[in-house]
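Q: Joint fold for the lines below.
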Amino acid sequence: MVLVLTPLRLALAALGALALSVPPAGAADTPDPAADAKAFRNYFVRKFPNVKLEEFVNGPYALNQDMHRQWEEKEQFPPYEFSLEMGKEMFAMPFGNGKGYADCFPNQGIGIRQNYPYFDNKEGKVVTLELALNRCREANGEPALSYVEDEMAALTAYMAFTSRGKPFDIRIPDDPRALEAYQNGKRYFYARRGQLNFSCATCHVQNPGERMRAEVLAPALGILNAMPIYRSEWGGMGTISRRFTTCNSQIRGVPLDPQDEEYRDLEYYLSYVSNGLPISGPGARP
Amino acid sequence: MASSIRVRAIAGGETTEVQTLIQHPMDSGFVKDAKGEFIPAHFIQELSFEYDGRKVFVADWGTAVSKDPYVKFSFKGGNKGDDLKVSWIDNKGETDTTIVKIQ
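A: Joint structure:
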């Protein structure tokens, strides 16, 4: 008898379950991220048959022609320019001990945005770019930056800019904890919360392209590819952390702390299902 | 510090099209900070564009203009390679100037 033992099956076998009684892979209740991502993408492609796949990273601008024209004009002179410049300067500025951000990242931190967040096998947790930046600072004796303010947005803006056009390449290693983090993020995405009883998906899967007051809702597909964003509504830049926490407040829920494990899992899930779409950050949104 | 003014001026036929983005808080004086205290008004009062010794565009601004304002206009004349001087002065007397080449 030939048996291919995946870690999950091994674990079950170790628990005393008979290898033969394990349900076949692909059963409905077995998490299958690759199939999820495909279904997720197909849903948006079918919903917006006139939008090219790589255009989804432009959020509402991809869905509304009038807004698209305004955006093209805006991109000639993008409002995130100042932040980008600040990020570039910050990134190049050495820490007190002489080291820099470049020493903490593969390829000196250039053109790597598409690989974040990743699952850290040693730690057993998801590591986002924002978290990695603060860990880099702390390891070099610098105080951590706020996850929702301008400095962090500037740094991630610069790192996204150097990665523009590279497709999201989020991997789920063969580790049950990684799959669990992915599943947890997916659960968070679809779970309703807050006084309005909205899930992330209520707006960004069921209603992208529709108006929420004056705003046109962005599709969840490719939504993180454009981060961080300059929002005219905020009058400034916002990180992924800022986006998640404000989304939660807007549905009158209680936001988690920025970079809470659940938010990191959410970012992991949401990035994974946008795999293959190009990084377009930093972005500008109304 | 880097200049607070970004300018792109492009000559095309008889006119030159100018786009400018300025970094400025443009505080109206009516907004409160986290402690509940008013943030004092701080806004650009005059923005001017000078070409060939004459002012081609002058804006008298007040508190109604947004943070990090953007301006786009065209003026008659202007040749590739010429200088265009942009400057602003705000209500606190702060000022910034930059000179760019028309493209």
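Q: Anything notable?
A: The CA atoms of residues 23 and 82 of chain B lie 24 Å apart. Chain B has one domain: 5-101.
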